[in-house]
Write a structure and sequence with these properties.
The protein has 182 residues and is of the alpha+beta class.
Length: 182
């Protein structure tokens, strides 16, 4: 897993007030505790994030509002983050772009009654929130919705409302396109 992805996740988690720490990052990304600590140190020193550690909550928080900087790329760079936050080749995609903002993932809470569906959606699930309720993170709305339809056609999107609306529109379009098929 790339350091940029881990740093984006850490920033989002701190911004959400969840007080992440090196242990949680190491578990989340299957890296060593030391590597997680280096990533946090990089965020604090190189990226000048105003991080502080709360010993009572055993995690980090921002002492003042902070945003990740914009990632500058040159015309020779041909990389971008795919829907799971991994670097991918962009040749022929959008070669004119010279500035790419570090993308934070979208979040959703879904309800999956089927345990097999939860297994199939595991690459998106970051936490279990209650009985059959899961918090998901994703970078591509279309890929997430497509995965959800395939893995769990009886799934419910609990939040956000805009994602539920997009799912309903997607299903309506698929149904309309196939209504007259014989």
């Amino acid at each position: 897993m790339l350091a940029n992805t881990r740093i984006q996740w850490f920033h989002k988690t701190v911004s959400d007030g969840a007080y992440p720490n090196a242990n949680r990052m190491a578990e989340r990304f299957a890296i060593s505790h030391r590597q997680a600590q280096r990533d946090i140190d990089f965020l604090r020193t190189t990226m000048k994030a105003p991080l502080a550690y709360d010993s009572n909550r055993k995690g980090f928080y921002y002492t003042e509002p902070y945003s990740l900087p914009i990632l500058l790329i040159s015309s020779n760079d041909t990389v971008f983050l795919d829907d799971k936050g991994r670097l991918s080749d962009t040749e022929g995609y959008n070669e004119g772009a010279s500035v790419v903002q570090m993308q934070l993932p979208f979040n959703a809470t879904i309800q999956l009654e089927d345990k097999l569906a939860a297994v199939e959606m595991a690459s998106y699930i970051v936490d279990k929130e209650g009985a059959h309720q899961y918090k998901c993170e994703f970078h591509s709305v279309k890929r997430f919705l497509a995965s959800l339809v395939v893995a769990a056609p009886t799934a419910r999107i609990l939040e956000p409302d805009w994602l539920r609306t997009q799912m309903l529109e997607l299903v309506k379009n698929v149904a309309a396109a196939n209504a007259d098929a014989k």
